[in-house]
Write a structure and sequence with these properties.
CATH class of the domain at 7-65: Mainly Beta
CATH topology of the domain at 7-65: Hormone Receptor, Insulin-like Growth Factor Receptor 1, Chain A domain 2
Radius of gyration: 55 Å
CATH architecture of the domain at 7-65: Ribbon
Oligomer: single chain
CATH superfamily of the domain at 7-65: Hormone Receptor, Insulin-like Growth Factor Receptor 1, Chain A, domain 2
Number of strands: 17
Amino acid sequence: VHPNVSQGCQGGCATCSDYNGCLSCKPRLFFVLERIGMKQIGVCLSSCPSGYYGTRYPDINKCAKCKADCDTCFTRNFCTKCKSGFYLYSGKCLEKCPDGLEANNHTMECTSIVHCEASEWSPWSPCTKKGKTCGFKRGNEVRVREIVQHPSARGKPCPATSESRKCIVQRKRCQKEGKGKKNREEKRKKSNKDENKESRQESKGRAARRQNRDQRENNNKTQPKKRKAPNKDENLAPVDTAH
């Protein structure tokens, strides 16, 4: 062992020197060179810092730098996050997104353009005027629809969600709430009264028919049977035709 190399290192180093820091790392740790002024110092970390990606070898695990426009990367040619001013697309950092895509300034990625989508129109509402459905001839009716997909920054904007058109209804007078309620109550009472009257008349009719039937049956039982009148020919004496 070189005199400058120590075996009793700290901070995860397997071997180290006073001048260069860590020279090798303990198992499962990554070796990375950090620049301090004009000098590079070796350190051992459990994971690679931002701007580096880790590669494992049989003898050592190393951290290597990502591309200059990458903030974090999986490999040197596949970025996972870009630095400010660049947009991530398919593992690359671009200053401008390709055609058909748009830049998302929130995620700093190139994403698909999303257009607005609306639902089908609802049926037309009843014809009204000043909130009423009576007391006028011309009014308005409306229909509405909902937005089911809001657009992205470069997507097609949403259409109108309501429509109104003129309508014509048969003129009729508006009934007051109390008067209308009273009329409905009177109609209901009259209907019940008519039904009760018909029921009573039908009951009386059945009772009268039953009484007439019983009376005929009683008369048939109490009236004596008529005797059969004798034949006139039987009472005539025989005529003597000898003389």
